[in-house]
Write the structure tokens for this entry.
Amino acid sequence: MKALIYDGRLEYTSRYPAPEMGEGEALIKVRYAGICATDIEITRGYMGFKGVPGHEFSGVIEDASLKGLIGERVTGEINLSCGSCYYCDRGMRTHCANRSVLGIFKRDGAFAEYLTLPVENLHALPDSISDEEGVFVEPLAAAFEILDQIDIGRDKNVCVLGDGRLGILVAEVLSLTGCVLIAAGHSREKLSILEARGIKTAPGTEGLKKEYDIVVDCTGRGEGLREALKLVRPRGTIVLKTTVADRTGADLNAVVIDEITLIGSRCGPFKPAIRALAEKAVDVEPLVSRVFPVEEGVEAFEFAKRKGVIKVLLKVS
Ligand SMILES: [Zn+2]
Ligand SMILES: [Zn+2]
């Protein structure tokens, strides 16, 4: 099958073996897949991953032991859990001790014609969500995770750092809470997408005071935590969304002195993400910078690294 593979170097091939469907799994023909910051970090050595990257996708079930599922348009949760370890027993399946993660850890991903996932990981896409929009369910779910972790209401002063792919989605999701929100970034063009949605923005953090109840680091840079510490008020909360291969240290004394709560935040719930897309509560269409055929995947990665580019999609089939 067609696939983009990373083995110390990113390469396209038309002769990668198709995945075998395991018990309880479905074989999915991928339609679109999104290149995310994590994928770019993988090509810089993040997680030591080798194989087919890609974890944001939409596709069609081509085979499953439950024949009624065939033909269903889906996207899927990316963590594969064992269901029986200490963490799984306590309802933390995304933290399963024996997990693999689609296109990130011990499991081939979505930059290929076919992928397999357990049926329980799959979510049907309603007709009102296009194949292209379906790619955004996974990163949007990661944004919704924040709302599962902390209370954000109208009384909260919130700053989102970073105007990249994830920063924009996080700002859009947090704006649904009615909180007092500002999104800080460096790209005029990207910030204007948020302004069009009625979200206040700031060009960089220089003019901002150290008075935010909650700061969300979506910078995708190692220095993000240090910047967040300059903006969060004493006894405030910092939500860390950034994963980078090269993590620059921040002075954690500031966390102690200001009694800051640090919250790590990763994958989130798919249901509210699908609902928000279906109801057009968030608008992801302006985020698609360009669509490349999977055959041009290497070029697509180079394009995705360029300044000003938001989301690059691969049309797989
Ligand atoms: Zn991602
Ligand atoms: Zn487990």
About this structure: The longest strand covers residues 25-35. The chain has two domains: 3-136+284-315, 140-264.
